């Protein structure tokens, strides 16, 4: 007991014996690309985050690089939406063109393509409809097309976020067949049907036109189901598995970490960011301290990778020694 007290009291040794470490290399920053020109529109529910056209992304990427963040995940907002989300797999779709631009101008940036259809379908669901239901087996064929189009554009990794059964296997098969055997897949393996996604859906124009996504995303009451989903994705070829959201599902992060030896990602989603921003802007909390504490909790729970809208700010806190 006395030895532990001395370690806590000794400022010079606290960092040395710290159990949880955070690296800038483990941070991923989400970006919203909108089809068009000269667009740089702040997202009302997410102050400090923007929908941007490709020609306006340089300042954001350069700020990330200056802070030491070198990985981004791309989401797209197309001009045209249809029943099958055709802009999601179009060779010149908004995400495909953003990938090409970033990889050409900033080759040091690691680019991850989010593979889903909700931003691209006229009905806002994550797949192809059969009546009012999403047709799982038809959808995974389209998801594989989306993943391939992103990789052909230059994506370093693809991240299927749809939660369809069998999509990892389908994507792995088409990538391998086309010679992209070394492109990793980060699967949204335990993606819960959460109310924390509200600001994202407004930002990406991806709210469903009817119903909800509870038939294919996970019930927030379930934990054993998450482990089953993770195990299935790994068997199908997932290289990294993800838990989403992060803050309310840290128990799932820990359980996933305990049953697998692949890297585990945690996504701190739009609702988490919006709550912190709102409370901080009202003077109720210390934004920097809360932001850091949330990140530490994810890594302490077992996350190896942290996807966050606070990536740049966290990197600066690492430099200042506040966390790390």
UniProtKB/TrEMBL annotation:
Q: Which Pfam families match?
A: ALAD
Q: Where would you find the membrane-spanning parts of this chain?
A: none
Name the coenzymes or cofactors required. Zn(2+)
This enzyme's EC code(s): 4.2.1.24
In which pathway does this enzyme or protein participate? Porphyrin-containing compound metabolism; protoporphyrin-IX biosynthesis; coproporphyrinogen-III from 5-aminolevulinate: step 1/4
Ordered alphabetically, the record's keywords are:
Heme biosynthesis, Lyase, Magnesium, Metal-binding, Porphyrin biosynthesis, Zinc
- Name the enzyme's class: lyase
Q: Identify its protein family.
A: Belongs to the ALAD family.
Q: What protein is this chain from?
A: Delta-aminolevulinic acid dehydratase
Biological source species: Lachnoanaerobaculum gingivalis
